[in-house]
Design goal:
Blueprint lengths: L2 H7 L2 H6 L2 E3 H11 L4 E4 L6 H9 L3 E4 L3 H15 L3 E5 L2 H17 L3 E7 L2 H5 L10 H5 L5 E4 L6 H13 L5 E7 H5 L1 E3 H7 L14 H12 L4 E5 L1 H5 L3 H11 L3 E3 L19 H7 L2 E5 L21 E6 L13 E4 L2 H13 L7 H23 L7 H14 L4 E5 L2 H9 L8 E3 L9 H12 L3 E6 H5 L5 H6 L4 E7 L28 H5 L4 E5 L2 H14 L3 E6 L25
Parallel strand pairs: 2-3, 2-4, 4-5, 5-7, 6-7, 9-10, 9-11, 11-12, 12-13, 14-15, 14-16, 16-17, 17-19, 18-19
Antiparallel strand pairs: 1-8
Helix pairs in contact: 3-4, 3-9, 5-6, 5-20, 12-16, 14-16, 17-18, 18-19, 18-24
The structure holds adenosine-5'-diphosphate, ligand TPW and magnesium ion.
The site of adenosine-5'-diphosphate has 24 residues, from helix 13.
């Protein structure tokens, strides 16, 4: 008699003798044992009951309208907590919908685990056409850090433990865990099942740098006339906030935060070089990268952006293979940021000369010019609003509520908000990251609200918002303190394109005069239409005070934006002139 049949036929006498458990419960117990408190997902065969049971067992289960958004919520949960965020999906199409978020998490070094139910191995492998048939493990593998499948309920403990360790150790990233439908109803002796579970000990161990590597780096740093520290989102992730602050303040080296590292030290800090970005990239002679890669976002460490003067790079990263990825790293510091920066701090305390007044003065002067220029533009009170006047209002909101979380996506809406809105606390700015991907908005907003309980302000281009906009229902359903501001300029970059043939709308434009606020009202949330900076500020304040789900349609001049925001130069140009 099979184990399942035995349960069905069991009389009360046998029940009393052997307590049984099954795959469903072992998955839940394994997650709980490892401190997983929340699952983000979309239900359906074969994981509907898994979600229900997880909820019944006290895990918070947040159900979304699309798996990509659930995946993005899990990914940002991972970034914010250093524990893997969990996304749960059905097979083939649900899995594929979640996979974009898993790949994006891996690209951004966020720890997350995509758990997908899958079809019967025997049928999938013979390609006999099962319900939602797909070889999910094979497809996931190249897109994440690690991928595992569990076939026997006794192995669930090991499978979950491996997934957790793979996600958070070393360079964090996405992990895929494949759970075939049959696994969930497999029955095992409860005691044996409990013993098979694994609590992951020291999942992301400290990784200390070699003392010789620290010496080498300190020597290079001491030789600098114009040193610069670049903080990346790895530094934000590391949660070594106090050590990083002390190192910067003790050494007196100016710092430049990458987008999601803003607020690690306040943007208003005297050593912040954020408002003098081009100057410091060009003129610095030694650059210490802390949890930031020399990828396209830093022009690969070479070319015009970096100027002609010779430059030496020191790099702190947990991933040894990151070194020399684009240019020579004269002093690689492989280790976790907390340990490495603390070693550097000890070195600086042992003897250090602060950077020259000339260097600090050059940066200060440039900052003052740029900030003055910017503040003029922020004060403009034009109707319709342009990006700057609208952002001026939102800058003030974050200044008054520095613990609010800012989610940001779009093109102009992203690039200009990044420059205008000062951040004051670590891990408060969440955005499109390494890929510049659209669609993270509502997933990040939900994940951030659920994980932190803090109010979220999501500043969204109208196009960007559309990628995940249906989750306003999710925000209303869970009554999350999320205020969405849609920068409605009627389209992608601008709202003015036309079809040269006159047949259709232009490729980058949307319905004119749209009222995104009505979408929020449809689900019981609050909607506003804002046409001036004063209105915008007032509506956001109301939303933040009430904590009610709110969407503000901010009417922006369709002519105000530029193609691709700040990165228009990446657009390929056609060399062919069409004959008329
Ligand atoms: P940004 O886009 O902000 O420049 P990146 O995503 O390019 O940042 O870089 C983040 C880097 O941080 C990655 O190379 C990753 O390996 C590294 N990293 C992540 N966590 C840690 C950590 N705890 N210690 C050291 N390096 C880390
Ligand atoms: C998954 C390409 C980059 S920015 C953008 C798109 C479609 C939208 C810009 O319009 P928006 O912002 O949001 O209205 P604004 O303020 O300039 O008008 N698909 C994906 N990712 C990306 N990056 C794109 C397409 C893109
Ligand atoms: Mg737009």
């Amino acid at each position: 008699m099979s184990a399942v049949a035995q349960v069905i036929d069991t009389n009360s006498a046998i029940e009393a003798e052997v307590e049984l458990t099954d795959g469903f419960h072992l998955v839940i117990d394994a997650l709980k044992l490892n401190g997983i408190e929340t699952i983000y997902g979309v239900p359906g065969i074969p994981i509907t009951d898994l979600g229900r049971m997880a909820q019944a067992e006290g895990i918070r289960v947040i159900s979304f309208r699309h798996e990509q958004n659930a995946g993005n919520a899990a990914a940002i949960a991972g970034f914010l907590t250093k524990k893997p965020g969990i996304c749960l999906t059905v097979s083939a199409p649900g899995f594929l919908n979640g996979l974009t978020a898993l790949a994006n998490a891996t690209t951004n070094c966020f720890p997350m685990i995509l758990i997908s139910g899958s079809s019967e191995r025997e049928i999938v492998d013979l390609q006999q056409g099962d319900y939602e048939e797909m070889d999910q493990l094979a497809i996931a593998k190249p897109l994440c850090k690690a991928a595992f499948r569990v076939l026997h309920a006794e192995d669930i403990g090991i499978g979950v433990a491996r997934a957790i360790r793979a996600a958070v150790s070393g360079r964090p990233g996405g992990v895929y865990l494949d759970l075939p439908a049959k696994l969930f109803s497999q029955v095992v002796d409860a005691e044996k099942g409990a013993k098979s579970l694994v609590k992951v000990i020291d999942a992301a161990p400290d990784q200390l740098p070699a003392p010789s590597a620290v010496e080498r780096a300190l020597e290079v740093l001491k030789s600098a006339k114009k040193p610069l520290i670049i903080l990346g989102k790895g530094a934000a992730y590391a949660q070594a906030d106090e050590t990083i602050r002390e190192f910067i303040e003790t050494s007196g080296i100016p710092f430049l935060p990458m987008s999601m590292a803003k607020g690690l030290l306040p943007d208003t800090h005297p050593l912040s070089a954020g408002a003098a970005r081009s100057t410091v990239l060009k003129d610095s002679d030694v650059v210490l990268l802390v949890g930031a890669r020399l990828n396209w976002l830093l022009s690969h460490g070479k070319g015009k952006t970096w100027g002609d003067a010779p430059k030496k790079f020191i790099q702190v990263d947990i991933e040894p293979k990151e070194m020399d990825s684009n240019v020579e790293i004269v002093a690689p510091l492989v280790g976790d940021i907390g340990s490495v920066v603390s070693a550097l701090l000890d070195g600086v305390k042992a003897g250090w000369t602060a950077p020259s007044d000339a260097w600090i003065g050059e940066i200060k002067a440039r900052k003052e010019v740029n900030i003055a220029k910017m503040s003029q533009r922020l004060l403009k009170n034009s109707t319709p609003m342009d990006f700057h006047s609208a952002l001026g209002a939102l800058k003030q909101v974050i200044k008054e509520r520095p613990d609010a979380i800012l989610v940001n996506e779009g093109a102009n809406t992203l690039d200009l908000a990044r420059g205008v809105i000062d951040m004051y606390q670590p891990r408060k700015r969440l955005d499109v990251g390494t890929w510049g991907v659209m669609g993270i908005g509502m997933g990040f907003a939900v994940g951030a609200a659920v994980e932190t309980g803090k109010p979220v302000l999501a500043v969204e281009g109208d196009s960007a918002f559309g990628f995940s906009g249906m989750e306003v229902e999710t925000i209303c359903r869970y009554e999350l303190p999320v205020c969405i501001v849609v920068f409605n300029n009627n389209g992608i970059y601008r709202g003015l394109d036309t079809d040269p043939t006159g047949r259709d709308p232009g490729t980058t434009v949307f319905v004119k005069g749209s009222r995104y606020d009505k979408m929020m009202e449809a689900f019981g949330g609050v909607g506003y239409n804002a046409t001036t900076p004063d209105e915008l500020k007032r509506f956001v304040d109301e939303a933040m005070n009430s904590g009610r789900p709110t969407l503000i349609n901010a009417v922006i001049d369709p002519a105000a934006g530029s193609e691709s925001g700040n990165i228009g130069s990446l657009n390929p140009q056609s060399v062919v002139k069409k004959k008329s």
